[in-house]
Write a structure and sequence with these properties.
- By secondary structure, the protein is of the alpha/beta class.
- It has one domain: P-loop containing nucleotide triphosphate hydrolases (Rossmann fold, 3-Layer(aba) Sandwich).
- Helices cover 30% and strands 25% of the residues.
- It is built from five helices and seven strands; from the N terminus they run H-E-H-E-E-E-E-H-E-H-E-H.
- Helix 4 links the parallel strand 6 and strand 7.
- Helix 2 crosses helix 5.
- The structure holds guanosine-5'-diphosphate and magnesium ion.
- The site of magnesium ion has 3 residues, from helix 2.
- Guanosine-5'-diphosphate binds next to helix 2.
């Protein structure tokens, strides 16, 4: 194999290369309880091969990770997901998905450094998982939007009911999504970007 072809074999794919027009990069964190679809969401919107540290659940996780309602789930993200999406020619989002299990909370240290905002993914079958996650974002003052991931056997509560159950502040956007669909996952990120813009304008005005 000559040098050139081996170079090509290990080099970046064209879609992995950041366009030269990109001038603004924003860090966004995707959080939520176990099995709410974080890895799925990052995977469906990312234009680079998402980096994921999915691992088959081992005995260590048995009885620790709550698999109620997610019985078919046999893998779990042990560290994090990473992906990238260009919103337009200038703006690029870097997505960091992080596990919601309490035993991984040490990973949260530093994770929100430089993060402009977060998406909290929720599953209506297990809303309680999201309480702590939301509380932690509020403590840190990280703006977030809530995305309700629709699972077929999940009760379809009206969004306003979910908002009430999660005790969200009135301005916090809440939307439905299907994390498996690129368009839907992208809409969630657009909702976050619009919300961040509104917050920035409000701060400027005051
Ligand atoms: N029906 C449905 N299944 C989903 C959706 N999002 C994720 N899943 C499935 O739910 C399981 C957990 O998703 P995963 O992304 O691994 O969750 P994570 O632990 O938050 O990273 C996987 O088997 C996914 O295929 C969704 O929007 N609808
Ligand atoms: Mg995951």
């Amino acid at each position: 194999m000559d040098f050139e072809s081996s170079e090509r074999a290990v080099g970046p794919r064209s879609e992995d290369v950041l366009p030269e027009t990109a001038t603004a990069a924003v860090k966004v964190v995707i959080v939520g309880g176990f099995g709410v679809g974080k890895t799925t969401l990052v995977g469906s919107v990312s234009e680079i091969r998402p980096l994921t540290t999915e691992e088959t659940m081992t005995q260590a996780g048995v009885g620790v990770d709550d698999t109620n309602g997610v019985e078919r789930k046999t893998s779990t993200t042990v560290a994090m997901d990473f992906g990238r999406i260009s919103i337009n020619e200038e703006l690029v989002l870097y997505l960091f998905g992080t596990p919601g299990q309490e035993r991984f909370w040490f990973l949260w240290r530093g994770l929100f450094e430089g993060a402009l905002g977060a998406v909290v993914l929720v599953d209506t079958r297990r809303l309680e998982v999201s309480f702590d996650v939301i509380g932690r974002l509020e403590e840190r003052g990280v703006p977030f939007v809530v995305a309700v991931n629709s699972f077929p056997d999940a009760p379809g509560y009206p969004l306003e009911e979910v908002r009430g159950a999660l005790d969200l502040a009135p301005g916090v956007p809440i939307v439905d999504c299907d994390a498996r669909l690129r368009g839907s996952a992208r809409d969630v990120l657009m909702t976050l970007m619009r919300y961040l813009q509104t917050l920035a304008l409000t701060t400027e005005a005051s």
